[in-house]
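User:
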Amino acid sequence: MIHTLQRKELEKTVLTHLKAHPNGISEYQLLKLLGSSSNCSTDDQSISNAFSFQHHDRLALFKAHFLLFHILHRLRLYLHKNRAYHLEITALNIQLHSWSETVPIDSDHSMFPSCTDPLADYYLDIRHLENTTAASVQRLIDEFHMNIAKNRSNTSINRTQALATLDLKDPIDASTIKKQYRKLAMLHHPDRGGSTEKLQAINKAFSMLLP
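Assistant: Predicted structure:
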C-alpha cells in the first residue's frame, strides 16, 4: 500500500518529468523513467520498485500502470484546482498544457476533470490497486480480447447488411459505393415518388460504409 508521504513525493517526481517533456511523453516512456532509481527524485526505493517490472509479469505491469494513472489523475485535479496546468492523460500522450494556453475546441475529457468521468473515478480509488490479483488481471485481458472479437464480428455483419441495402457485395471500392448510393438515393427520394423509409435506410447504410 502506498502511503501519503510516498504519494506526495511521487506526484512531485511525475510532475518534474512532465515539465521536462513539454511536448508530451507516452505512458511507457514515463514508466521507464520512474522505474529507474537514478531518475527518480524520491529516496524511497519502494516507489521506484513499484515501477520496475518484467513484461511477462502481467500483475506487476498492471499495478505499475494503475499506480501511474492514479498519480496522474490526482495531479490533474490538483493542477486544475490551482489553475496551474491542464493535464492531458492518455496512454499515448501525457502532457502538461499551460493554463493560459488556448485549448482546442475539440479537446476531449482527457484534459479536464469531470464529475461524470467513470475512468477517472476508477483510477482515483486506490483500492483497485490493492485488491487486484493475477487472476483478475487475466480476466480483464480475456474480456478485452472478447470485446475486440465481438466488435469485429458486429462490424462484419453490419457491413454485409449495409451493402445488401445498396444492392452491393464485397469486394467493392468506395467510388462504386458512392455511385450506387447516388443512384438509389435519386430513385427512392420521396420527391420522385419514392419511400422516406427506404431513403433513410439507404442513407444509414451509406453512412456505415463510408462514415
